[in-house]
Amino acid sequence: MLWGLTPDALPAQVPTWAHQVAQAGLPVVVRRAAPESDRIPVGLRGTTRAERMAAWLKPAAVRRQHSPEALRISKDCRDLPVFSSLAAIGSLLDELGLPWGPTGAAGYELASGWPALHAGSDLDLLIRCTAPLPRDQARALLASLQAQALCRLDVLLETPLGGVALADWAGDAPRVLLKTAAGPQLVGDPWPGEHAA
What we know:
By secondary structure, the protein is α+β, with helices and mostly antiparallel strands. 25% of the residues lie in helices and 24% in strands. The chain is built from five helices and eleven strands; from the N terminus they run βαββββαβαβαββαββ. The longest helix is centred in the middle third of the chain and has 15 residues, at 81-95.
């Protein structure tokens, strides 16, 4: 998440909610798109799922940033299934030895303090996985996480080539959807080379 988007950086015709987000100084999320040399692809989020907007941010405008790995629950977190789930699975994720953190509404609320979650929210997680994760290990990890979570999980494995859903990689399909800056692709191996089993 990045802070620094101001109303004057928005296009001329934007929804009122987007102007309010920028005016309030709320963070924007880095979105998966091909970056331009002088601008970072970002997304604004409002209070509803329908309130999402793509924008661009100049690197010089960034005042502060938080990666998902820097976000953890605290005693000030609201009593919601997402935060209870995050507390329940945190040690399991730590045992992986891989960088991980919350994204989506949970990450946004932890970073900004803005109440982005509700009782039925999913917990979105990112696991940075530079080395191949064998599919049998992916299945075991997914089962362990689901057994301890109190809400629906959406876990993304971030590989050097892009992002793949843990649930997809833990499945049996020979090819999985890989989200890249150039767009989605169906691949047999979401890591460089022919490593994954």
